[in-house]
Design brief:
4 helices; 234 residues; 5-stranded antiparallel sheet; flat; 19% helix; 5-stranded mixed β-barrel; alpha+beta
């Protein structure tokens, strides 16, 4: 046998480990969280009063509702943005995996209050004009020996998901929920546009308000990751 056709098992294992490592590092680097952190780390911070039209800036402050707040599906908290995911554990021979049954994101227009100044954000779903990453702060699950809570059971029915299988055994399900709660400190980045107010905003004494918007190249960034609030302001 020619030398170059002889392959050591250790070499094969090494190649497999290398490939898996590259896939893992690439997935981590391009994840929504890491992408958003990189963008915000290099985006300049300015007080709202110093915003200039058409510049890309970030701002941190309290999220406030413009209209009646949304209600998070499981925790029932008032919010302006929520993300949920329901998954079921499936088996394929000796392997198991999580199948996504429901993945839902809802939001509304909202204000950010920063040092007494207001900025308005208007996310759009189609075409999507934002990138977001919400901290998952509510989870629940069910399984063979773990009945779903009444609240989880009610939520599953809302999405037409049966909590049990053919023989009455509980399905292995899990639920994740992340929200931007009213009054929560968040960070948003976008392109500044100043708008004239057609109606006054309570406790806001100015005739214009800054909005953060997107363009073809840059989407609005929305996140409640705590570390973004502490980025060096430059």
């Amino acid at each position: 046998m020619l030398p170059f056709l002889s392959t050591s098992p250790f070499l094969i294992i090494g190649i497999v480990i290398l490939i898996l490592s590259i896939i893992g590092i690439t997935s981590y680097y391009f994840s929504s969280k890491q992408t958003i952190l990189r963008i915000l780390a290099k985006t300049p911070y300015k007080p709202v009063s110093s915003f200039k039209s058409n510049e890309f800036v970030k701002v941190s402050g309290k999220a406030l509702h413009v209209q009646d707040p949304l209600i998070a599906p499981l925790s029932k908290r008032k919010c302006i943005f929520y993300y949920i995911k329901i998954e079921q554990k499936k088996s394929n021979g000796k392997n198991s995996y999580w199948k996504t049954l429901i993945e839902e994101e809802r939001f509304q227009d909202f204000f950010i209050e920063s040092n007494g100044n207001m900025v308005i954000i208007k996310p759009i779903q189609n075409p999507k004009n934002y990138k977001s990453h919400l901290v998952i702060d509510k989870e629940t699950s069910s399984g063979t020996f773990n009945n779903p809570t009444p609240e989880f059971e009610s939520l599953l029915k809302r999405y037409n998901i049966d909590s049990t299988g053919y023989f009455g055994f509980n399905k292995t399900l899990r639920y994740k929920e992340g929200i931007i709660e009213i009054g929560e400190t968040i960070t948003v980045a976008g392109i500044v546009k100043w708008k004239n107010l057609s109606e006054p905003i309570p406790e806001y004494n100015y005739s214009k308000i800054a909005t953060l918007e997107s363009d073809i190249k840059q989407k609005i960034i929305i996140t409640d990751l705590p570390e973004t609030v502490n980025f060096k302001r430059h």
